[in-house]
Amino acid sequence: MRQSGAQSKAMTIIKTVVTVLFMFALFFIPAGTLNWPEAWLFIVFYLTAVTGLMIWMKKKAPGLLKERMSRKKEAKSWDRKFLIAYCLVLIVFLIIPGLDAVRFRWSEVPLILKVLGFIGYIPGLGFAFWAMKENAYASDVVRIQEDRGHTVCTTGPYRHVRHPMYVGVILFLFCFPLSLGSLYTFIPSSIIIILFIIRTSLEDRALQEELPGYKEYSQKVRYRLLPGVW
Q1: Local confidence band at 7 (pLDDT 50, 70, 90 cut-offs)
Q2: Fold of 2-220
Q3: What secondary structure does DSSP assign to 9-53, as a single string?
Q4: DSSP 184
Q5: Structure confidence at residue 8 (pLDDT)
Q6: For the chain, what is the radius of gyration of the CA atoms?
Q7: Could you tell me if 20 and 49 are in contact, meaning their C-beta atoms sit under 8 angstroms apart?
Q8: Tens digits of per-residue pLDDT, 157-208?
Q9: How far apart are CA 114 and CA 177, in angstroms?
Q10: Helix, strand or coil for residue 101?
Q11: What band does 3 get if pLDDT is binned at 50, 70 and 90?
């Protein structure tokens, strides 16, 4: 048991380090310089948020941490395709800011909007964290977790929309181009947002068909992402 826990901790650390190094390369190589304060601030912010989330899950939601860190889980075939498309666009999403805001300066974002972009991360990540705090089955892939006794979550933000975590993710994606000073990054950002909207629709359909109680829940909480709209 201790060995398994140690292995899980090691894998978490390794995954975080690799992610940060990958992000570092995709930011600064296209920029052609390390003199980019906004990127450094983002990396520090991201690393702090991820570290805090991992510590919280380890203490308060170990089952959720194990679920999200495990790669040995079945996902819907369409969700696997979504993840491939998401990863491909994500690479472009991370490369463009350095090319735009630093190397070629194709666009310019006023300082006040950069500040608002960084401030916007707080409610975005906060909303996503609130969803994870309430929903013990907030996996990173779409699957009915029968092995974990999957049930419908109806508390916290789930009282208002059926997919609150995606709301936080979409807000984060909107703030990212502003914070790094790249209007052209709204192109891949918009594509990723569209992908998440499509995923929301497909996931919601799967949950209504396969998760007991979800169809009744969807009749009470009518909106998927935005109250009064959709």
Answers
A1: low
A2: Four Helix Bundle (Hemerythrin (Met), subunit A) (1.20.120)
A3: HHHHHHHHHHHHHHHHHHHHHHHT-S--HHHHHHHHHHHHHHHHH
A4: G
A5: 57
A6: 18
A7: no
A8: 999 999 999 999 999 999 999 999 999 999 999 999 999 999 999 999 999 9
A9: 8
A10: helix
A11: very low
Tell me the whole-structure pTM to 2 decimals: 0.90
Cα–Cα distance between 74 and 80 in angstroms, integer?
A: 9
Going through 13-135 in order, the beta strands assigned E by DSSP cover: none
Q: What is the pLDDT of residue 86?
A: 95
Contact (Cβ atoms closer than 8 angstroms) between residue 138 and residue 165: yes
Tokens of 196: 């998440």
Q: What is the pLDDT at residue 96?
A: 98
Q: What is the CB neighbour count within 10 angstroms for residue 21? A: 10
Contact in structure between 149 and 211 (CB atoms under 8 Å): no
The encoded tokens of residue 204 equal 């919601």
Map tokens 């679920």 to a residue.
Answer: 67
The answer to whether 148 and 63 have CB atoms below 8 angstroms apart is yes
Q: Residue holding tokens 């819907």?
A: 76
For residues 158 and 115, what is the distance between their CA atoms, to the nearest angstrom? 29
pLDDT class for 1, splitting at 50, 70, 90? Answer: very low
C-alpha angle 8-57-214 in degrees, rounded to nearest 5: 110
Q: Is pLDDT above 70 for 12?
A: no
Query: To which residue do tokens 């918009």 refer?
Result: 190
Q: Which of 156, 94, 159, 89 is nearest to 126 (CA)?
A: 156
Query: How far apart are alpha carbons 205 and 4 in whole angstroms?
Result: 36
Size of the chain, expressed as the number of residues it contains? 230
Q: Does residue 43 contact residue 20 with C-beta atoms inside 8 Å?
A: yes
